[in-house]
Every structure is written in C-alpha cells, then in structure tokens.
Design brief:
The complex is a heterodimer of chains A (107) and B (119). Chain A is an all-beta fold and 107 residues long. Chain A contains no helices and eleven strands. Chain B is built from no helices and eleven strands. Classes of the chains: A mainly beta (107), B mainly beta (119).
Chain lengths: 107, 119
C-alpha cells in the first residue's frame, strides 16, 4: 500500500499570507494520479486539485498544485478566513490512499 | 445539478449489519464509478471500495474484504454499501464519492452517513 505523509500536521497563518502544504509518497506516484481535497468541519471533502496541477471546477486560482522533487505541494496564496480547513492529498493510481491531513488555521 | 444523496444515520449493535444507500442524480449513472470512503471521529479518510455501475464489478480494500459488499440498482440510480459483523471501530461517517474512471479523482461526494456501533 502506498503511504502518503503530509506535513506539517498543523499550520497557523494570517489572512493574506501564503500557505504551502506538502505530501510525500512512500513509493513513486505519477503526478497524473495525485489529488488534493479540502474538508471543513461537518462537511464532506471537496476536490481542489487533480492530476497534481489542475484545479477542479469552481476552485479559485489562489489554489495551485505543484511538485518538488519527490514531494507534491499545495500552495494557497492570499489566505482568506474561509480557507480554514483540513487538507488531504490522495493518490489514485494504485488503488486509493489518503494522507493523514494538514489542519490549516487562519489567525 | 449533480448530486449524491445518502441515507440517514444508523445505530447498530456489535455483530450486526448495516446497509447505506447513495442515490445519484443529474448525470448518467452508468458513466461514473462510485467509491465508498469512511472517516472515524477525528480521524482521516479511508477508502473502502469501488463499483462500476455499468458492469457491477467491484473491488475492496484488503483490510475490509469479506465484511463489505457494494452493489447497485440501475433502475433507481442507487449504490449500496453493506457492512457485516460490525465492531465499535466501524463507528464513522461513511461517504460515497464519484470518479469518472477507476483511476480518477473523486469529484462529487455525498453528504455522509453516520453509522454508530454501540452496545
């Protein structure tokens, strides 16, 4: 099973700042099969990024996906209070696994 | 509009079974795969299984194999997830989610169904 490790576990930033979340896979994952989701309390997850780089329908361009070496990244620029949530990465190229999540708090 | 609407909360005793439904609307039911994902209280997301609504073929997470059965009814555009031999550790919110193919991201999710296993 491919294990995804997200860092940091918690991130606390102010409005207007930029957040960078990381996701590292225990074995090779094609960028084509890496996604990011956002989940707010009491809600279902929502797809943000698919194929590592592509924004899902309706997702603002403040959200961008990237790859740096073996790590996949989710960058959120110009943070807004409503960006407070838990963010999960997922690989869907070899069955399906999720990272443990990064909790983003907007101070 | 595309929707996945799930059945309501359930409470079961240990050893019992539960069946949760997920009704799809707003798109061609047989065109998209459907997954089940669960989330224990305060925990992360765990993939449980997948069904191809067109063929009915399924695949399950190895650790749940034998306890989970996913089925579909094409006449009502509904997918079902049944879990047997329930334990307290199965207490979780259960979600259905759609993917265009078996190796695609999950673009639409149901609202979730809380299943509580308690004596």
């Amino acid at each position: 099973e491919i294990v995804l490790t997200q860092s940091p576990a918690t991130l606390s930033l102010s409005p207007g700042e930029r957040a960078t979340l990381s996701c590292r896979a225990s074995q090779w994952v094609s960028a084509s099969y890496l996604g990011w989701y956002l989940q707010k309390p009491g809600q279902a997850p929502r797809l943000l990024i698919y194929g590592a780089f592509s924004r899902a329908t309706g997702i603002p361009d403040r959200f961008s996906g990237g790859k740096s070496g073996t790590d996949f990244t989710l960058t959120i620029s110009r943070l807004e209070p409503e960006d407070s949530a838990v963010y999960y990465c997922q690989q869907y190229g070899n069955l399906y696994t999720f990272g443990q999540g990064t909790k983003l708090e907007i101070k | 509009q595309v929707h996945l609407v799930q059945s309501g909360a359930e409470v079961r005793k240990p050893g019992a079974s539960v069946k949760v439904s997920c009704e799809a609307s707003g798109y061609s039911f047989t065109t998209y795969y459907l997954h089940w994902v669960r989330q224990a209280p305060g925990q992360g997301l765990e993939w449980m299984g997948i069904i191809n609504p067109n063929s009915g073929s399924t695949a399950y997470a190895q650790r749940l194999q034998g306890r989970v059965t996913i089925s579909r009814d094409t006449s009502t555009n509904t997918v079902y997830m049944e879990m047997s031999s329930l334990r307290s550790e199965d207490t979780a919110v259960y979600y259905c989610a759609r993917g265009y193919s078996s190796d695609d991201a999950f673009d639409i999710w149901g609202q979730g169904t809380m299943v509580t296993v308690s004596s």
